[in-house]
Predict the structure of Glutathione S-transferase N-terminal domain-containing protein.
Amino acid sequence: MADLSAFPITSKWPAKNPDILQLYSLPTPNGVKVSIMLEEIGLPYEPHAINIGVDETWTPEFLSLNPNGKIPAIIDPDGPGGKPFGLFESGAILLYLAEKTGKLLPSDPAKRYETIQWVFFQMAGIGPMFGQLGFFHKFAGKDIEDKRPRDRYAKESARLIRVIESRLEGRDWIMGDEYTIADISMLGWVRNLIGFYGAGELVEYDQLKRVPKWLERGLDRPAVQRGLDIPKRP
């Protein structure tokens, strides 16, 4: 049985089965990237719900695994060299799991880096901009009379989603016929933008032709459907 005692997070969220990957997350747009990935690749894992509503990511135990205080994070008992390995940042986790299993990342070097570039595009653009739009449109920011902050993020989110629209011309997935971690990185964010955030009108989502079909294809995948609800919210 793997010994995870070197990871203080396991004292607050004990592993029932320390021999399988431990996921510390919540079904947010960033969190579901990893749960969807794990469901797609079929790697056994144990999910732990981290209640961000009561600031559990800022507890000493969670910060010992991710000093940035964000979900998701993982501990792989069978990490590099066969030793337990902790990792945070959703994009890094997607790459790690893809390389660990040889799934959802092309083996051809050029296509591999092309896929990674789109994951980085999501991490640097889609996530931060859609998240800020959500804040200023749905959450506390909606009460601010000055709508310039909201409109700024709406304009940039509209531009970014049209980058995806252009990329999908003649393609079912970001990388063409092959569904990859690039798609996984973006599905939850686009779903959230038009669903939970209710910002579809702000980015003129109805004018898009390819992104809605891409999103529908993604959401039809059984692994995506399962991953969107893991871990169960507290």
Notes: The CA atoms of residues 9 and 61 lie 4 Å apart. The first helix runs from residue 9 to 12.
